[in-house]
Amino acid sequence: MAKRRSLPRPLGLLAIALVIVLAIGVCQRLRRPQPTPAVRPPAAHVTFIKRLAPYAQTLQGQYQVLPSITLAQAILESDWGTSTLASEYHNLFGIKGSDPATSRVMKTQEYQDGKWVTVDARFRIYPSDEASMKDHALLLVNGPKWNPHLYDPVRQATSYEAAAKALQTAGYATDPTYAAKLIRLIKAYGLNRYDE
Asked: What are the residue boundaries of the Mannosyl-glycoprotein endo-beta-N-acetylglucosamidase-like domain, all occurrences included (predicted)?
């Protein structure tokens, strides 16, 4: 029977230490967060933003509404311009109406008493997306008849975060996460680059 040859004691300890160091390095690399590759937005989303952004900037100059807010609301309210309300009636912001000659009754989701319900509501119709955008800016300037100053905090906000929160506080939408959704869209698509 051949005698088993062992490494001299210092070399054996060195080999064990080397294995431990390598194992620690591998574990640390596995735990380190890997950078996520940049995700390119769909071409239709980019086109939608580029089409509306110049007029949103024009409206900012006239009415002091941040383009990032205008764009994020248009995206959220119209599902990138694909909702029936937007695609057939150019209503990008879910603005309601009362005159049967210039509005249509449609089903919509409202958040009431802690849950989502489907209701019928009358929404304004517009001849173009630009007309819808201007009416949205005018709504924020003039407020509803019952409170002309309702949206003043939105226009006075110095950041899109503050403007989004002011919209939610004013009750623009019944969705309790409305401001967070707007902020998330602005960040995801860099919409604040259009703000002056």
From this structure: 38-195
